[in-house]
Amino acid sequence: MRLTESRLSSPRLKAGVSRRGLMIELLREKRYDAITVQDLLDRAGIGRSTFYTHYFDKEDVLASVSEQMLELFRKPLSHRDAGD
Fold this sequence. Notes:
By secondary structure, the chain is mostly helical. The protein has one domain (5-83): Orthogonal Bundle (Tetracycline Repressor, domain 2), CATH 1.10.357.10. Helices cover 67% and strands 0% of the residues. The chain contains five helices and no strands. Helix 2 crosses helix 3. It is elongated. The N and C termini lie far apart (37 Å).
């Protein structure tokens, strides 16, 4: 189960930092394999139970972030194709 950003009640997310932003921040600091769920919890300001209510593991977060990024690329392409 993946959670939309608007439903995740996190102080960091409410402040405008997206899941994508949180993961990218962490990736700038360390390799993906060194990132822990605890790192994500600390950065987002959420508890473990909240995290596991919405994600299976950090791979699930990465998959969700990847899907978001792909969608960002798809939108401009679909608008361009619709205008052709």
